[in-house]
């Protein structure tokens, strides 16, 4: 019996040592993703849906002119196999007309409505821009060659995934495109079609990543994806505090505590995996997210996020200037 306990203790000690080493130095057995894409610090969700009508060229142009690092989009496939940018296959919410994109020819698609409610904010976007037409993914790639584009393949049909991959290759965007799907099976399809394109994690993979982390097994867990997209639970409180019950607020706080973990984010960065939180629209949320050293923030209001970063830089510069003046006076 004593020998058995000695073996158990030895196994536990070896496990703890190996687990710690792999947590600190994961690239010993896992590939270094090496930050395959550029900066994802400021990302315009659906092109910046709070400032221009979502997924339209005016929105994309506006965000690009602001200087965002990434455009986040979703894609659908029309009846005549054109890849267009749209969150929904059902057109009613975005256009006011009934019908499915997948059952409509591209030239027959109606224009977007000039007023849409935001999914992650309790406000409505109203725009006076004239061009509300659906945008081809091919055109977006052509007009915005350098900016990183984050693509959710939505229904993830093989024909759509293959077409998106072909467009990425055609426009030489392997190094500045992120793609994937919330479904693990559809994400696997993306990887099988083109493993050279940077991927974000499915919901299942995100959940398993947290599970492995809290079980102490994260160092052994392989990850082919290079971007870790997650919501920040506390932002729900900022948007819906007045309608949530006491228990719901407690659950949100617990979720935030479990999900926003600096140690996990540190480990992911050691692997070259970037952490991006979505969708944050208020300065309070921006500030909270930055405390956890995330790599990027998705927002419907890119101008707000850029202003937040600019104001922060100015304040830091002002603080440095005041410190220098104080030190100068002390030396005198």
Task: Give a description of the structure.
The longest helix is centred in the C-terminal third of the chain and has 30 residues, at 302-331. This protein has 332 residues and is of the alpha/beta class. Helix 11 (283-291) links the parallel strand 10 and strand 11 (296-299). It is globular, with a radius of gyration of 23 Å. It is built from 12 helices and 11 strands. The relative contact order is 0.13. Strands 1, 2, 3, 6, 7, 8, 9, 10 and 11 form a 9-stranded mixed sheet that branches. A two-stranded antiparallel sheet has the order 4-5. The chain starts with a helix and ends with a helix.
Q: How are the elements arranged and paired?
A:
Elements: H1 2-24, E1 42-45, H2 57-66, E2 70-77, E3 83-85, H3 92-95, E4 115-117, E5 124-126, H4 137-143, E6 148-152, H5 158-170, E7 177-180, H6 184-193, E8 198-199, H7 203-214, E9 227-231, H8 234-240, H9 246-259, H10 262-270, E10 274-278, H11 283-291, E11 296-299, H12 302-331
Parallel strand pairs: 1-2, 1-11, 2-6, 6-7, 7-8, 9-10, 10-11
Antiparallel strand pairs: 2-3, 4-5
């Amino acid at each position: 019996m004593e020998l058995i306990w000695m073996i158990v203790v030895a196994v536990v000690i070896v496990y703890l040592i190996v687990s710690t080493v792999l947590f600190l130095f994961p690239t010993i057995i896992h590939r270094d993703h090496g930050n395959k894409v550029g900066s994802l610090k400021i990302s315009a969700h659906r092109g910046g849906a709070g400032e221009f009508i979502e997924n339209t060229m005016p929105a994309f142009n506006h965000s690009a002119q602001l200087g965002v690092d990434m455009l986040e989009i979703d894609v659908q496939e029309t009846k005549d196999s054109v890849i267009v940018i749209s969150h929904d296959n059902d057109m009613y919410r975005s256009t006011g007309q009934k019908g499915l994109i997948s059952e409509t020819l591209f030239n027959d698609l109606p224009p977007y409505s000039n007023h849409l409610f935001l999914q992650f904010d309790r406000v409505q976007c109203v725009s006076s821009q004239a061009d509300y037409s659906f945008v081809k993914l091919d055109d977006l790639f052509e007009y915005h060659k350098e900016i990183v584009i984050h693509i959710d393949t939505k229904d993830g049909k093989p024909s759509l995934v293959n077409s998106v991959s072909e467009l990425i290759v055609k426009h030489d965007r392997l190094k500045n495109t992120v793609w994937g799907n919330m479904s693990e099976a559809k994400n696997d399809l993306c990887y099988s079609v083109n493993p050279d394109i940077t991927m974000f994690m499915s919901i299942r993979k995100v959940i398993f990543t947290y599970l492995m982390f809290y079980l102490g097994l994260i160092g052994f867990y392989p990850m082919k994806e290079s971007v870790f997209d997650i919501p920040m639970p506390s932002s729900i409180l900022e948007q819906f505090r007045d309608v949530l019950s006491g228990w719901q607020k407690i659950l949100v706080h617990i979720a935030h505590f479990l999900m926003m973990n600096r140690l996990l984010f540190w480990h992911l960065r050691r692997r070259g995996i970037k952490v991006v939180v979505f969708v944050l629209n208020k300065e309070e949320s921006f500030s909270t997210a930055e405390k956890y050293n995330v790599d990027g923030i998705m927002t419907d209001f890119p101008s707000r996020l850029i202003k937040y970063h600019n104001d922060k830089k100015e304040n830091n510069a002002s603080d440095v200037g005041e410190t220098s003046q104080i030190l100068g006076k002390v030396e005198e």
